[in-house]
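Need the bound structure for FE2/S2 (inorganic) cluster, inputs here:
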Amino acid sequence: MTDSDKYPVESDRRRFVKGVVGSAALSGVGITSAVTADSLTTPPGAGGGPTQYMGIERVGGPAPRGMPQIPIEIDDDGALRGVWPEVETETTATGQEIQVAETEIAGTTYSTTWYQYCGSQTSPAVEPDSDRDNYFRYSSASNYDWQGEFSGGDKVMVSHFDDYEQFGTGVGDAGLGKPAQATWRSQDLEPRDTLGVQIIRSTAIEEAAQDDEWLSETTAEGFIAYFNSCTHYCCVPGFQMHAGSAGYGAENLSYCNCHQSVYDPFTVLQQQFVALPRPSDTVGGQG
Ligand code: FES
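Answer from helper R.:
Posting the output first, comments after.
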């Protein structure tokens, strides 16, 4: 992709500000007209449909909305994993029984339909009752040099991020957070079915979580995670990953180098989209 394909960054906001996340999330101001248009023009289907979610903010470029957050928990050994809700059976308006995985967190309905876009809706990883390891595991190919000391598939551990308050990738300012590329619920799956995740440990998240019920429940020890699939055309953005991001004011944000979409991983908003149906829940699909 060349610079001639660039889209201007629409905002140079920096929201490393305590309290922004909470007020925005509670008021729902993150729902944009672009997102509404998306919901009106895409038909729902079994196992999908209009979905409200909590996600990082899209701040520039052609992407229509932010990327969905993944609630985190840390086990007794210090390993990070994503929360996967309990599975229940629901009956649709047409009488079809489908399985859903959702739960209430801090007054928000957390559903795994949040991740049903960009082809992931066909992945076994998002099947509600798929019995999978919920641990985050390092990607086998990462753009972050520091991950070279780990093998793809190794568990992401808190102790690997001890230097997060000073860490720098060489792109943007040091000290904003330590990022990693990981996978989720994807062991033994084909690359096309793998769920890619961005993890960041940052003091900005620690501070924001002090005043925000959602973040205090879904982040841990400064770690935030989100499904790292660009909502434009499904490329893989990166936080402080691409040197070229500086040309778009995105060197301290998450930048997608396919068409210059920019996301702020430190601002989480309530948003909405139409989740794509899972093939196994569609009439004629594979059970
Ligand atoms: S900006 Fe087009 S795929 Fe990310």
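Comments: The pocket of FE2/S2 (inorganic) cluster is lined by residues 61-63, 230, 232-235, 256, 258-259, 261 (CB under 6 Å). Residues 3-276 form one domain.
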